[in-house]
Amino acid sequence: MRPPFRRRSLSMTSLIDVIFLLLMFFMLASSFSRGTEIALFAQSGGGTATARQALFLQLSPEAIRLNGREILPAALEAALPSRPRVLVSLAPGVDSQRLADLLVVLRRVPEMQVQVLG
After folding, report:
1. Cα(first)–Cα(last) distance of the chain, in Å?
2. Which of 7, 14, 70, 113 is a plausible cystine mate for 85, CB 3.0–4.6 Å?
């Protein structure tokens, strides 16, 4: 006759080791830097109009137009006046990465006011 089956107790040591190794991997692989953060601010309604004239920037998947003239992304920063106010219009098909790349370029201009139109 066969002896009765006895269930062995499960050791949690190896499971804890695996969880600890996974935790260490994700902690070391993650980056907590905020260097690529893009600040977006909502326009509050009822504010006073500024004396600065707004520039109109059209962003499409293929090109960038500043006040109707096509411009290269490298020349955009130099083409803007000091303390500009820019309205950005998005054409259909523009993805979020293209908009983020544009906002990074515009962020380098001091005292820039950017408003993305919906």
Report:
1. 80
2. 113
Element (H, E) at 57: strand 54-59
Query: Around 2, how many Cα atoms within 13 Å sit in the side-chain half-sphere?
Result: 3
Handedness of CA 59, 104, 38, 110 (dihedral sign): negative
- Give the helix ranges, DSSP H, for 30-88: 73-79
**Cβ contacts of 106 within 8 Å, gap of 6 or more:** 76, 77, 80, 86, 112, 114
Instruction: Enumerate the β-bridge partners of residue 89.
Output: 58
* Residue 94 near residue 60, CB atoms below 8 Å: yes
Three-class DSSP category at 76: helix
Q: What domains, with CATH codes, occur in the chain?
A: 54-116 (3.30.420)
Is the pTM higher than 0.85?
Answer: no
